[in-house]
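Reviewer 2 asked us to include a model.

Predict the structure of this chain.
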Amino acid sequence: MDEVVTLLHGFTLSGASWDELVAKMPAGWKWIAPDLRGHGSARTSPATMDDCAADLVALWNHLGIERSHVVGYSMGGRLALHVAVRLPERTRSLLTIGAHAGLDDEARGKRRQADQALAERIEREGVESFVQHWESLPMFAGIRRRRPDFAAWLHRLRTGNNAEGLAASLRGMGAGAMEPLWDELEAIDLPCTFVAGEDDVPFVLAAARLNETVDRSRIRSVAGSGHSVQFEQPDATASILADHLGWAATATSSTTTA
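Predicted model (C-alpha cells):
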C-alpha cells in the first residue's frame, strides 16, 4: 500500500483546495484531503483543534491507516502541529506552510477579540461579502497574480462554505482560540519541514522559530511568494513536498531499523 499523506486546508477553504498540488506530485503516495470542521461537508460545531484531531483519527481508523504524513496550510498548519504533538504515534512526518504554534498571551487576547468580531461579521453579512473582504487582504495578493480562472476557482471553493461553519471555525480554531504549543514542540521526534513564502515576513519568522525549536526539522523559504505558497508557486511547493516526503521516508526507515 502507498504511504499516506493527509492534507489539511486553511480557513475558508476545503479539501479540494489541494487538487492542483496533488496533480503535480509524483506517483507512489495516497492522498487524503478532508474538509475540516466548519468547512465544506464537515460538521459545523463544535469546531476545535481537538475535535478535528479526533475526526482525523476516526478517518484513519476507518481507512485502516496506522500512520500518515501530515501537511497543513495556515489554520491547517496549526492543526498539523497540534496533531504532531497530540498524536505522534499516528504521524509519520510533518510539513507546514504559513503556520505558527500559537500566540503569546497579549497577542492571543487581542486576536480572540478580532476573531469574534470577524465571526459576527460573517454571520451578519454572509459568506459572499466576507470572502470578498478576505480575498482582498494584502497577504493574499500573490493569488491575484495567478490566472483569473484560478482565482475564480478558489473563490467558488470559499463561497461554497456557510456562515455558521466559518464563524464556528474562527471561534474554536482561530489563532486567538488556539492553545499555544511552543512549550511542547521539543517533544516532536519526526521529520519536519516548515515552509513560508519569502514575502510573508511574520511567517518566515515563525518558520525560523519552529525550526529552532524542533530537533529533526528543516526550513524552506519560497521566493516570489506570500502567505499561500501552494497557490502562488505550485511547482516550487510540489518540489519541496516531494523532497520532504523522500527525506521523511528515509529518515523514518533509518530510525525504525536502528
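The domain at 3-102+179-257 is CATH 3.40.50.1820 (Rossmann fold). Residues 37 and 52 are 6 Å apart (CA to CA). We have added this to the supplementary material.
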